[in-house]
Amino acid sequence: MEQIDDQQIKADDRRYVLHSWSKQKAIHPSIIKKAEGIFFWDDSGKKFYDMSAQLVYLNVGHNHPKLMEEFKHIGDIPFASPGFATASTAELARKIIEVAPKNMAKVFFANGGADSNDHAIKIARMVTGRYKIFSRYRSYHGATFGAGNLSGENRRFAVEPGLPGFIKFETPHLYHEKIDFESEEAASDFYLDRLEHQILYEGPESIAAIFMETIPGSNGVLIPPKGYMEGVRALCTKYGILMICDEVMSGFGRTGKMFAVDHFNLEPDMMTFAKGVTCGYNPLGGVIVSSSIADYFDDHVLLTGLTYSGHTVSTQIGCATLDIYKNEHLVEHAAEMGHVLAERLEQLMRFASVGEVRHLGLFAAVELVKDKQTKEPLMGYGKDYGKDTEGLMKKFVGLLMEQGFYTYSHDSHVMIAPPLIISEQQIHEAMDLFELALIKFEKELFS
Ligand code: PLP
Prior knowledge:
This protein is an alpha/beta fold. It folds into 2 domains: 6-60 and 329-446, Aspartate Aminotransferase, domain 1 (Alpha-Beta Complex); 70-327, Aspartate Aminotransferase, domain 2 (3-Layer(aba) Sandwich), CATH 3.40.640. Helix content is 37%, strand content 17%. It has helices spanning 6-16, 53-56, 65-71, 87-99, 113-128, 145-150, 184-202, 228-239, 291-299, 312-327, 330-347, 392-403, 424-446, and strands at residues 32-36, 39-42, 47-50, 104-110, 132-136, 166-169, 207-213, 242-246, 270-273, 285-290, 354-360, 363-371, 376-377, 405-406, 409-410, 413-416. Helix 7 (184-202) packs parallel to helix 8 (228-239). The chain is globular, with a radius of gyration of 22 Å. The termini are far apart. This is Aminotransferase class III-fold pyridoxal phosphate-dependent enzyme. It comes from Sporolactobacillus kofuensis. It holds the Pfam family Aminotran_3.
């Protein structure tokens, strides 16, 4: 590569690169100059706590020595198209099945999250012979056409008018629900009853799959009420519908268990994954299918494919990544650190602008409100996406960045999902910075 200075990188970036989800004139990307563990440093020399693991994928942290070492062995396994059996692809598929729910049998490899979801849609249609796909509001499944149609929030608007047969139902979000349920179970019954009505109205015999982020991530870490996930499983079984759990963000230890589905008493028919399988050190995603789906394709053509399905470099990095989860006990560590983070998050409820905190393991969100009583969000949501007319979320995120707390925000919440290697002390340091930003924010907002 050419050696060019920071000024030139920024000039070329401005001139030649299109950045996602942004008005190009409104953004001024900085450069990450150095990164180590949970930290990175930008081109001004400022140090940041990476509290969204970039975009919730760098579970092993930046610059992990074992993965950097693995890159030196790239080329040991020759490039091979998907028609060949390769050591890394076979080993990674086996390793994934070993940690997946018991009914899971085989893996189809894709390039990332969105195309994994596209393939799960296709597989569901092939196996069931049905075409309708249910998915939820307040979900994000990716930016390709299929995954975009699954997504139940504003980032899908670019693929509208969408594909026929994609139907949305509600994600339980008790904080913003007008009904005051007497228990979580009662809330689950309510939402499940509505879902069953929708299934019956649409005609179960036409519905191939119900698609869900096990725990919706970028829409605010919405943890399902007790009994809800098992209830969806029961409805799927009752009507012969496949249950597909998108574990792209929540998988690989994020919630303190290997997959978020492991928190519930159920086995999905398919699971999609990406991010944490290589922690972003190389792009990779995939679909894990149950033994009955795997068996179906023994005698039926799997009518789909990708040039880079099971790319040897990505699967080699995937194998090394899964070894790190195991050898460094990262999933157990995430569960332990989750308790530390939970305590700090619950303490945030004393702030006037904090409406709700939600967390499971190291997967968390803080929802901000203008008024605790009315729960009025800080900025517009849904079709009013991006209408941060008063600039309040932008202001808060700016204050976080000023403190050196880097994270992702969407609508009126910010995510807290650091690399799983974070220590107890680092959680306290980062959350002290978060509180400082909140104090400054409230001084301006409420004084
Ligand atoms: N599914 C979920 C739950 C995600 O959070 C994302 C991305 O954030 C995707 C799918 C899409 O993944 P990718 O950006 O790798 O296509």
